[in-house]
Design a protein that fits this description.
The chain has one domain: UDP-N-acetylmuramoyl-L-alanine:D-glutamate ligase (3-Layer(aba) Sandwich), CATH 3.40.1190.20. The strands form two sheets. A nine-stranded mixed β-sheet has the order 5-4-1-8-9-10-11-12-13, with helices on both faces. A four-stranded mixed β-sheet has the order 3-2-6-7. By secondary structure, it is of the alpha/beta class. About 30% of the residues lie in helices and about 25% in strands. The relative contact order is 0.16. The protein has nine helices and 13 strands. Its EC number is 2.7.1.15. Pathway: Carbohydrate metabolism; D-ribose degradation; D-ribose 5-phosphate from beta-D-ribopyranose: step 2/2. Keywords: ATP-binding, Carbohydrate metabolism, Cytoplasm, Kinase, Magnesium, Metal-binding, Nucleotide-binding, Potassium, Transferase. One of its GO terms (molecular function) is ATP binding.
């Protein structure tokens, strides 16, 4: 079977990560942290996840003309993601995410969008066709709407971060992906279309719905948690790859859950993203 072609439209960031024993409360200063920087951004993370899991991936995004751009794109370029549609913005800086991670792997994230906020429909037009198009909400909604019109078999939308979107996007998407917070934000509107809805539940695993009815459920895999940053993006990329390949819905959810489980066992959003062989070995061991 040939590799599915996936177009990812979304954000590219440089992640600045401080790892500490406990995350600060409002007004509190925490010392003794260690610092690292990694490529990130939900769009880039999902693109790289899909690439490492076997897809032929193109990334549509904006970065600044600054040193952070090369750092932010480094792993995408190294692992063979097509970057020919990346736009260099003359006025805006490459996006940056400030991330705190505590000893249990929990995190907080503050994003300075930079060039991501300038991506628009003109940057997306003319792309395709593709087996799947994968989007998130860290770029303007005009770009997401344009992405939904790219000729593809599967339009997948990760509704993160949660914000109001046109009802038509929710109703016509072939796959919506949310966590518990996002699911509460959108409520019943998630289930007005005929597509799939994937809901991640943290320690309670994940559920896949069609037309409001549960079609698959996966408990969480017990693994040592190092850093949860990027786990949700891994899940999104993996589920898009699996469905684009034609996997049965339950098998696709299992594949995505296994990939996400492996992602939390390493530091950094993109360095932690697993390869196809690692996921298949992990799932074979759990069978």
């Amino acid at each position: 079977m040939s590799a599915p072609r996936i177009i990812t439209v979304g954000s590219v960031n440089l992640d600045l990560v401080a790892a500490c024993e406990t995350l600060p409360r409002p007004g509190e200063t925490v010392t003794g942290a260690t610092f690292a920087q990694y490529p990130g951004g939900k769009g880039a993370n999902q693109a790289l996840a899909a690439r490492r899991l076997g897809a032929d991936v193109s990334m549509l995004a904006r970065v600044g003309k600054d040193p952070n751009a090369e750092l932010a794109l480094a792993l995408l370029r190294k692992d063979g993601v097509d970057l020919s549609r990346i736009v260099e913005d003359e006025a805006a800086q490459t996006g940056v995410a400030l991330i705190g991670v505590d000893a249990s792997g929990e995190n907080f994230i503050i994003v300075a969008s930079g060039a991501n906020a300038e991506l628009d429909a003109r940057d997306v037009e003319g792309a395709g066709p593709a087996d799947a198009v994968l989007c998130q909400l860290e770029v303007p909604i005009s770009a997401v709407i344009a992405a939904s019109q790219i000729a593809s078999k599967l339009f997948a939308l990760n509704l993160a971060p949660a914000m109001p979107v046109p009802a038509g996007l929710l109703e016509t998407a072939d796959l919506l992906i949310v966590n518990e917070v996002e699911a509460d934000f959108y409520g019943d509107a998630l289930f007005r279309g005929d597509g799939l809805v994937a809901k991640t539940l943290g320690r309670d695993g994940s559920v896949l719905y069609r037309a409001g009815k549960e079609v698959a459920h996966m408990p969480v895999y017990a693994v040592p948690v190092v850093d949860t940053t990027g786990a949700g993006d891994t899940f999104c990329g993996a589920l898009a790859v699996a469905l684009a390949e034609g996997m049965e819905e339950g098998a696709a959810l299992r594949f995505a859950s296994g990939a996400a489980a492996l992602a939390v066992t390493k530091e950094g959003a993109q360095p932690s993203l697993p390869w196809r062989s690692e996921v298949e070995a992990f799932l074979a061991d759990k069978a």
